[in-house]
């Protein structure tokens, strides 16, 4: 790996201090972009074109007030339950109270761990070498745990509230407007950045398959919705370089070299309040710093692709599995969207459910009930799609 800035380790205070001017400047530039507001539709029921234009121009948009208060509480409670029942360390089957840890019934391990305030990925070949440059690490407090939960994988079978969020009619209408009516799922992951513990995620662009395609475009690797359960602040949030999703593969080591540190000059913080959600293009250059602030961030990611970009693709997943996304695979994985819509309908009967065109004739088969919980939802993430 071309690691142009050697690993630098600071005290947590030094790290927070080193960020202060960068944060001030970044906050100002983030607010100047004008890419934020509620999800709004025009008189014909289409997503307002100025929202779409801002998304395609900058590569992200902040949707305000996406969650109702009760939904936000449900989501926070579910995440708290998962953290309370986490294994006491990455190798244990028991939680800190000696109970069987949660999630043991699923085929894929739900908990991903990192050393507090570390950079687990930067400058390594992990994640297909997507994170070429190291971030500054910081020394956690003496009483900090050895490990912190960085991610939950497979949100939709771990936390029912996230399944209801998955069926959110406003967010799904945005997905349809950006990707077309036949949009398909990617995966669902929780990012947890506890104060004084949360590790960095080194600068990277998501997407591994289509960078050299003849028909590559700014939307070739889809997007993530990133719903925020607590405020997303400049000190704990994801930073992104506006417009970089349109530039193809970006030379990240050069940007870090030019900056003289991991604080890339053109990046802005993705700021918002609890209950807001970003749409973020997966091709945008983005990353997050060690959370040396006093505020936690919890982000629920749910990604989507244009169907044509995954149809019949054969890929090697990060865990080495080789999978072809044929019609059957896409159909089975997409059922999670329709089941999410039904789970939401049951909780919020006052809301008009989203019409998911690919499964419009299979609404009855995709009710949220004990049968689909067992036969479709459990271990659904073995069918995650990835490009
Ligand atoms: O939430 C974060 O800190 C990083 C998120 C990220 O890198 C991603 O979703 O690709």
Structure notes:
The protein has 387 residues and is α+β, with helices and mostly antiparallel strands. The chain has a single domain, classed as Jelly Rolls, CATH 2.60.120. It has helices at residues 12-18, 20-32, 49-58, 69-84, 126-129, 155-158, 160-166, 169-179, 252-259, 307-310, 327-347, 370-377, and strands at 9-11, 36-37, 60-63, 111-114, 137-139, 148-153, 184-193, 201-204, 223-228, 238-240, 268-269, 277-281, 286-288, 297-305, 314-316, 322-324. An 8-stranded mixed β-sheet has the order 2-3-12-9-14-7-6-4. A 4-stranded antiparallel β-sheet has the order 8-13-10-11. Helix 4 (69-84) crosses helix 7 (160-166) and helix 7 crosses helix 11 (327-347). The radius of gyration is 20 Å and the shape is globular. The model has no long low-confidence stretch (mean pLDDT 96). The structure holds 2-oxoglutaric acid. 2-oxoglutaric acid is lined by residues 191, 201, 206, 224, 238, 286, 288, 299, 301.
Which features does this protein show?
globular, 12 helices, Jelly Rolls, alpha+beta, 16 strands, 387 residues, binds 2-oxoglutaric acid, 4-stranded antiparallel sheet
What is this entry, summarized?
The chain has 387 residues and is of the alpha+beta class. Helix content is 29%, strand content 18%.
N-end to C-end Cα span: 22 Å
CATH architecture: Sandwich
Small molecules bound in the structure, each named once: 2-oxoglutaric acid
Arrangement of strands in the largest sheet:
2-3-12-9-14-7-6-4
Let me know the largest β-sheet. Answer: 8 strands, mixed
Query: Could you name the CATH class?
Result: Mainly Beta
Shape: globular
Helicity range? 25-40%
Number of domains: 1
Helix/strand-derived category reads: alpha+beta
Radius of gyration: 20 Å
CATH superfamily: q2cbj1_9rhob like domain
Low-confidence stretches: none
The helix-strand sequence is: EHHEHEHEHEEHHHEEEEHEEEEHEEHH
């Amino acid at each position: 790996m071309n690691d142009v800035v050697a690993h630098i380790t600071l005290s947590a205070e030094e790290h927070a201090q080193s960020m202060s001017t960068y944060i001030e400047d970044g906050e100002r530039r983030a607010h100047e972009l004008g890419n934020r507001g509620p999800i709004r539709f025009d008189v014909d029921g289409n997503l307002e074109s100025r929202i779409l234009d801002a998304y395609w121009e900058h590569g992200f948009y902040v949707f305000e007030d996406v969650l109702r208060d009760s939904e936000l509480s449900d989501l926070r409670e579910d995440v708290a339950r998962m953290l309370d029942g986490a294994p006491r360390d990455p190798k244990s089957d028991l939680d800190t109270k000696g109970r069987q840890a949660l999630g043991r019934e699923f085929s894929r391990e739900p908990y991903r761990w990192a050393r507090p305030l570390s950079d687990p990925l930067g400058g390594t070949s992990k994640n297909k070498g997507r994170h070429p440059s190291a971030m500054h690490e910081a020394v956690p407090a003496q009483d900090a745990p050895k490990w912190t939960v960085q991610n939950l994988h497979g949100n939709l079978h771990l936390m029912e509230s996230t399944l209801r969020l998955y069926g959110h009619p406003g967010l799904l209408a945005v997905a349809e407007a950006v990707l077309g009516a036949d949009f398909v799922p990617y995966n669902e992951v929780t990012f947890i950045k506890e104060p004084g513990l949360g590790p960095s995620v080194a600068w990277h662009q998501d997407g591994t398959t289509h960078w050299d395609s003849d028909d590559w475009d700014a939307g070739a690797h889809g997007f993530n919705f990133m719903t925020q359960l607590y405020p997303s602040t400049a000190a704990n949030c994801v930073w992104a370089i506006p417009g970089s999703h349109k530039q193809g593969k970006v030379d990240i080591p050069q940007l870090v070299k030019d900056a003289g540190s991991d604080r890339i000059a053109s990046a802005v913080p993705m700021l918002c309040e609890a209950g807001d959600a970003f749409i973020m293009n997966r091709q945008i250059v983005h990353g997050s710093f060690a959370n040396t602030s006093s505020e936690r961030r919890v982000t629920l990611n749910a990604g989507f692709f244009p169907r044509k970009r995954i149809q019949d693709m054969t890929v090697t997943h990060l865990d080495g599995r080789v999978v072809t996304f044929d019609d059957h695979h896409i159909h089975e994985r997409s059922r999670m969207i329709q089941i999410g819509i039904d789970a939401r309908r049951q909780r919020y009967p006052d809301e008009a459910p989203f019409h998911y065109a690919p499964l419009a004739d299979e609404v009855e088969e995709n009710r949220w009930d004990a049968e689909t919980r067992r036969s479709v939802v459990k271990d659904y993430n073995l069918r995650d799609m990835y490009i």
